[in-house]
Model the fold of this input.
Amino acid sequence: MRLGGGGLTADLRHWINDGLMTFFFFVVGLEARREFDMGDLRERRRVMLPIVAGLGGMGLAVSIFLAFNLGRSSAGGWGVAMSTDTAFALGMLALVGPRFSSRLRAFVVTVLVVDDLVSLVVIATAYTHSLRAGALAIGVALFAVMLVLRQANVRRLGAYGLLGVATWVAVRQSGVDPVIVGLAMGLVSYAYPASRGDLERASDLFRLFREQPTPELARSARLGVDLVLSPNDRLQQRLHPWSSYVFVPLFALANAGIAVNGHVLSRAFSGPITLGIVIGLVAGKPLGALAASALARWLSRGRLRLPVGWGSAAGTGAVAGIAFTVSLLIASRAFHGTQLQDAKLGILTAAVVSALLAWLVFRAIALLPHRQRVVLTLGTADEVVDLDLPVDPDHDHIRGPEDAPVTLVEYGDFECPYCGQAEPIVRELLSDFGDVRYIWRHLPLSDVHPNAQLAAEAAEAAAAQGRFWEMHDLLFQHQDALRPPDLVRYAEELGLDVDRFKDDLRRHVHAGRVARDIESADLSGVAGTPTFFVNGRRHHGAYDIDTLSAAVRAAGAKALVAR
Done:
């Protein structure tokens, strides 16, 4: 590729290794940033032990490799034993890990990002043969411009894309491996929940387009909807399938090929490179992670605690031995000829054995009694609480036992069709679990549901006469009939004091009670309906019966440990 008098030249394998893998690490950085901004790791004290565990696993793995190769020319390939393949590790975790693994996933992502970041720094320093300081300075300056634009809240992804490409070119020309640009850009891409203000503006733009369907208004509506989501969400949605199903397989196709026969196997498994990689990754990763975590907890006198149980930490350490992508990347720079063959065979062997070891760890945990299984999986660290306003039995509407170990809070809108779909699911959930209390809080989306606010006030007017849940159920049964005459008719069906009910609606007596729920929704980062919280933790994703049941079981298991 040439531009003017300059250009970039490389064979296809190098374009895959340096180009496509930049996108792979960009997606890794995006996922890590989301955990830092919206997941468990937004409480920064929870970040420390995963970082320590990642560094401990890397340190011991490298030490084992060097023990096998000390004094040999192959010792220079020590970086091969330090990294973990994020995509394969997370995939294996999904296959063999526990069902309630959101916290475990956050822990694993942190460990893997530490691995990737340190590994890419190592590639950029230890495995860079010639450094051009001028080109590197240009790359750093371009990246600084991106940070300035981000601080100025510039939301144009195209501008960041152009600067990213220019930064990648400058870093590559400097002699430093350019894949580190991808991880760095992902880590600085903010993630945040959609705000109600942005959603309302998007609704206004769509209404304008509905009234006048012109190309200009169509573009404005699309842009308005796009800007509701954080750059992190938009980029993950676009790039994640490409990263998982195109870039990684292409990398494997370009780099993993080796000729296997009896002579190759005999030479490799009796040689220091293969043995150092296999033992370093399979044994060094989990043992180093566990030892470093235990030491950090002891030195901090318990202030630093694993966000997961020790069993999950052991399983994570085993999964971290799957070191396919980055290790192959380092091996291609550190070795040549038969040494490269031996390194590839060691990496592939370690991946298979580590996957089997992780399965054995989680399988052994699954065979333990329930309480021990929960402790080893989830640990005893406190949950992150997303719900800003705690449940108050004196003010909140509660269904189910007040002393239940699991509390399900829903922010809903009586006119919202998705809340209507969720309502029978919640009923089924409450019938399946006798130890769950359910709380309804109002979040009428008046910009799209014109009758929602008055319906919420009607429910509160019924609550003033001791019939909240009966009115709640009637409103969901008749979501398409929520005008004032309809609401009065429902009050008559329930045998309420209709004159009092009508007077409450006319004077908006209960608007303040509804506003209190709306304010608590804003403080908790809730923008749409339905939004659920399980024991104060926001539930992300689907709200079908299986998904909500799994979340309730996980919360119940955690509550059991806390007792």
